[in-house]
Structures are given as structure tokens and as C-alpha cells.
Amino acid sequence: EDDSLQVHVLKPGWKEFVQRRALGRFQCSQCFREWSSAKVHILFHMCRRQGQGMVWMRVFRQECRRCSDPRLEEPEFSQETMERLLHNLVLKILKYFYHLPTQPSDLLEVVVDHTTLGVGPHDSARCEGCQLGVC
């Protein structure tokens, strides 16, 4: 993980994949309020040199809306969401570095459990991805 990764800022030879709209669950480290978001974005930077590969990732965080001085909180993902994220990452690696043809329809939707979502709108003011222009 690297919280300094930025969208469209790549070292030479590196490729980028932004997984948009993953379902994450958050808990405030101050007031312990919990919330879910279907707009968690994960940024991957990857490269392959001399048969070795490397993937760096950044998960965009969110702040609690209840606290007056909130911290950016890391999301947690279900096992099914993680499997879908990794499936999509592997497809991008196969496309970028092994030139295997892939279709957009091959990517899996990563908003898996709609029952845990609140009905409220996305809180852009408290979303790190929105603040950085990713969302």
C-alpha cells in the first residue's frame, strides 16, 4: 500500500487501474460510528520487469460525518468483494503485460451486497477520492 499514489502520475513503464465503486464498510476510530459506501475507489499502479511484477495500491478513505475533527478511515471489504477486486486486477495485468484480449464485460461488479447500503447520497465532502478528483 502507498497513500502517496496519485491518479495519472506514473513512473515510466508503469500502468494504472482504478477500481471504482467497490463496497466498503467503515468505522470511525473516534466515535465508533459505522457506515457503508458503494463508492470506495482503489488505485493500482503496476509494472513488470525481467519477469518480476510489482503492484502498489491506494485505497481512498472517508471521514465520519458525526465527528467535528474527523480522521480519514480505512474501509474494510468482504471476502467476496476482495475476490472480485483481485479478479479485476488480474485481468488488467493479463491485458497490460501479457497482451491477452479482455473485454470490459469481463470485469466483475464489486458492489456485492446492496442490503447493507444506506439510502443517503455519497458524502463528497468527506471522501478522499472526491477531494483528489478520483471519484
From TrEMBL:
The keyword Metal-binding applies. It holds the Pfam family Zn_ribbon_3CxxC. Its main location: membrane. The keyword Magnesium does not apply. Keywords: Membrane, Metal-binding, Transmembrane, Transmembrane helix, Zinc, Zinc-finger. GO terms for molecular function: olfactory receptor binding; zinc ion binding. It is found in: Membrane. GO terms for cellular component: membrane. One of its GO terms (biological process) is protein insertion into membrane. It is a single-pass membrane protein. Residues 21-133 form the 3CxxC-type domain. InterPro entries: R-trans_p, ZAR1/RTP1-5-like_Znf-3CxxC. This is RTP3 protein.
